[in-house]
Amino acid sequence: MINKLLIVLLCFLPFSSISIAFDLNNMTNEDRETFQKEIRRYILENPDIIFEAADLVRKREAALEIQEDKDQIKSNFNEIFYDNYSYVGGNPDGDISLVEFVDYKCGYCRKASEIVREFLKTDRNIRFVVKEFPILGEASLISSKFAIAVKNIGGPEDYKFVHDILLTLTADPSEAYLRRIAKELQLDPEELFTAMESEPVLQEISQTSELAKKLQISGTPTFIIGEQVLRGFVPLDVLLQVAEAVHNK
C-alpha cells in the first residue's frame, strides 16, 4: 500500500515547478537528494494531496478487486451456481442465484440468516445456494458434516430444517443434541453419524474450500450474486439493490 501510495503521489506533484530536470532512471546521489527534498517541501506545503493519493489508491484497488471477482466468477461459474451437490432453496427456477458461504458458528451468519429469509420473501425470483464452509473450528466442521449428511440421506427439506436450527445454536453441537434432531426428522442417527465421515460429505466440504480459495474467500458470511462477491454481513437493502441491478441487466 505504501509503495503504491508513493507512486500515485508522484503523479500529483507539479514537476514543472522543480528547478532541476531529473532523469528518474539515471539520477546521481546528489540529484536524488535534491529531488527528495523538493518532494518533501511540496508535500509539507500541500498535505491534502496525501489524502487524495490514498483515496485514489483505494479506488484503484477496489476496481481491481471487482474485476478479479468478475473474472473468477466467470471462470468458476458452474462450480459456484450449479455444482449438483449444494442445497438449492428459494425459487429453484429463479433467474438469479444468491450463493452464501456459511459457517454455523459464525455470529454474523446467524444474523445474516434473518436477512436472507426476508430477501427471499421479498424477491420470489431468487435461487438460494448454500455452500458449507466450516472454518471456525471443530464444532463448525461437525455441524457442516451433519447438515450435509442429512441432505444426502433425508433430502433438501430435511437439510433446510437442520440448516435453520444449527444457525440458532450458540452452544457446540453435542452428540445427544444431533441425535434429537435426527429422531425429530425420523432419520437413523447411526446412519447419519456414519455418513458424516463418508466420502461424499468430506468431498463436498473439500471442494467448497478449494472454490473459496480460488475466489479469495476467507470469511463468512460471503455472498455471490450476479458478478459480485459481497464479503461479510450485507444489509437487506443492499441485497435488494444488487438483485434489482442484476434483474435489469
Provide an overview of this structure:
The protein is of the alpha+beta class and 249 residues long. The chain has two domains: 2-75; 84-247, Glutaredoxin. The chain contains eleven helices and five strands. It has helices at residues 2-12, 29-45, 48-75, 77-81, 107-122, 138-154, 156-166, 175-184, 189-195, 199-214, 236-247, and strands at 87-90, 96-102, 126-132, 222-225, 228-231. Strands 1-3-2-4-5 form a five-stranded mixed β-sheet, sandwiched between helices. The longest helix has 28 residues, at 48-75.
Element-by-element helix/strand order: HHHHEEHEHHHHHEEH
Count of helix runs: 11
The unreliable regions are 1-8, 15-20
Q: Going across the major beta sheet, what is the strand order?
A: 1-3-2-4-5
Domain count:
2
- In CATH terms, the superfamily of the largest domain is Glutaredoxin
Mean pLDDT across all residues, rounded?
88
Instruction: Report the strand count.
Output: 5
Spatial shape: elongated
Q: What class do helices, strands and sheet pairing give?
A: alpha+beta
CATH topology of the largest domain: Glutaredoxin
End-to-end Cα distance, whole Å, is 34 Å
Percent helix, as a range, is 55-70%
